[in-house]
Amino acid sequence: MKKILPAAMILFILISVSSCIHSKKVYHMNNHAFRLRPGADLKQSIQFYVNHHGIKAGWMVTAVGSLTRYNIRFANQAEGISDSGHFE
Description:
Radius of gyration: 22 Å
Distance between the termini: 49 Å
Low-confidence stretches: none
């Protein structure tokens, strides 16, 4: 066991260094955060924000809030689900 641990650490360091060496491109990411007022339409609000700030491509990392209605379709599913009430 004592001989395996140093070898595993060396292998980990070599893999880490080689992955850093081969990463030549550095990408810049702009972060945006905005608040929706109660009753605001989520999709319309996001579309307005995207248009207003000239965002060409992006993805949503996280969201926090509450909803009174939702419609969601998961990847690789033909049909979505919807519900209404108070959701956080």
